[in-house]
């Protein structure tokens, strides 16, 4: 039976990680070596998902965790950008290169690193690997997964309380099970809060990640504009870099946007639109990166599936925008829903 380490509250926390990244990270090159090397030193490396650094969301949250670990532990670090049109073989080579150079842990940011990491982890048993948003069955891999549906439920509560047209929108980057979790939780939160009176319009930008669903702000903008034309006055996006286009469209139309992963109200690159970012469904990718780095630093590396949910503050809902507290009943409704999810009286769907 595969060992699963117990996640402790001290290792994570949405509020404890600053989710804005401003510094530039390094890159790594292949330094040679064989499959028995790696893991001899403690240094943290992350390989970004589609969209790369600067998405003001998923990847930037991961970088914040790397930056925190670097400052606290004095780690050498590397953060590597993806390349357009790359294959699994390219990803495998990237992970292997980082392991050969002695980085430990090595973390793949995104489900796309699943098959490559499964192959590389076997070749470098001395290295602790981490993968975000996927499960890889290997003794030296920590699978860092999140209860996105729980944060999205809270976003749905917020949307139902904020809408004046009784129509809200959801824009998903790619039509895949991971993003279905965001949509399912959001729809359930909207319906439970409104008693079925609020309509949810959903759209996915692409069928595959290779088509740019997570990396095309223009696609996100067009989708949001279409939903706004259909009277949606709150639009929630789970679309990575494409979500910036959703937020831009909402701001232009002077309706509410709901961000994702990071507290997008606080992102400098989105400052021109911040007054229209009602809230963000938080996913503490930075906390997960930091937690794995800390476990290696403590010589107690996490392995197995690590689930970050509301109980451990691994997901949540931002309340940074002062307008959030001004909407009648919103803060109370979110607090009640959060308590219900944690105590089990509210069961959130994933599909």
Automatic annotation (TrEMBL):
Endpoints of the signal sequence: 1-20
Stretches of the chain forming a coiled coil according to its record: none
Any one GO cellular component localisation term in the record: plasma membrane
Record membrane topology: Lipid-anchor
A family per Pfam: Bmp
Start and end residues of each ABC transporter substrate-binding protein PnrA-like domain: 51-322
Compartment(s) where it occurs, according to its Swiss-Prot or TrEMBL record: Cell membrane
Top-level taxon of the source organism: Bacteria
UniProt KW Lipoprotein keyword: yes
Keywords, in A-Z order: Cell membrane, Lipoprotein, Membrane, Signal
Family: Belongs to the BMP lipoprotein family.
PANTHER family in UniProt: ABC TRANSPORTER GUANOSINE-BINDING PROTEIN NUPN (PTHR34296:SF2), TRANSCRIPTIONAL ACTIVATOR PROTEIN MED (PTHR34296)
Protein name: ABC transporter substrate-binding protein
UniProt organism field: Streptomyces regalis
Biological classification of the source: Bacteria, Bacillati, Actinomycetota, Actinomycetes, Kitasatosporales
């Amino acid at each position: 039976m595969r060992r699963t380490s117990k996640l402790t509250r001290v290792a994570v926390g949405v509020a404890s990680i600053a989710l804005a990244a401003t510094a530039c990270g390094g890159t790594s090159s292949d330094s040679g070596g064989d499959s028995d090397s790696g893991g001899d030193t403690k240094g943290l490396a992350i390989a970004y998902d589609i969209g790369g650094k600067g998405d003001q969301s998923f990847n930037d949250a991961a970088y914040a965790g790397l930056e925190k670990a670097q400052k606290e532990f004095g780690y050498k670090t590397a953060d590597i950008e993806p390349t357009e049109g790359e294959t699994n073989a390219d990803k495998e080579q990237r992970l292997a290169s980082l392991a050969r150079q002695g980085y430990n842990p090595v973390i793949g940011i995104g489900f796309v690193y699943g098959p490559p990491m499964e192959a590389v982890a076997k070749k470098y048993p001395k290295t602790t690997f981490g993968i975000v948003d996927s499960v890889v069955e290997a003794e030296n891999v920590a699978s860092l997964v999140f209860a996105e549906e729980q944060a999205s439920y809270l976003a749905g509560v917020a949307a139902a309380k904020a809408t004046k047209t009784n129509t809200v929108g959801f824009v998903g980057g790619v039509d895949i099970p991971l993003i279905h979790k965001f949509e399912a939780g959001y729809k359930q939160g909207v319906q439970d809060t409104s008693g079925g009176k609020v309509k949810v319009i959903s759209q996915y930008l692409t069928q595959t990640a290779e088509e740019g669903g997570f990396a095309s702000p223009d696609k996100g903008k067009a989708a949001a504009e279409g939903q706004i034309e259909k009277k949606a006055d709150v639009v929630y996006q789970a679309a990575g870099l494409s979500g910036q286009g959703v937020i831009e469209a909402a701001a232009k139309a002077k309706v509410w946007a709901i961000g994702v992963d990071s507290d997008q109200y606080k992102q400098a690159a989105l400052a021109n639109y911040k007054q229209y970012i009602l809230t963000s469904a938080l996913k503490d990718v930075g906390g997960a990166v930091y937690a794995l780095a800390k476990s290696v630093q403590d010589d107690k590396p996490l392995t197995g599936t690590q689930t970050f949910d509301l109980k451990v503050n691994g997901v949540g809902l931002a309340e940074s925008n002062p307008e959030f507290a001004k909407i009648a009943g919103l803060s109370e409704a979110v607090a009640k829903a959060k308590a219900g999810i944690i105590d089990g009286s509210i069961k959130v769907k994933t599909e």
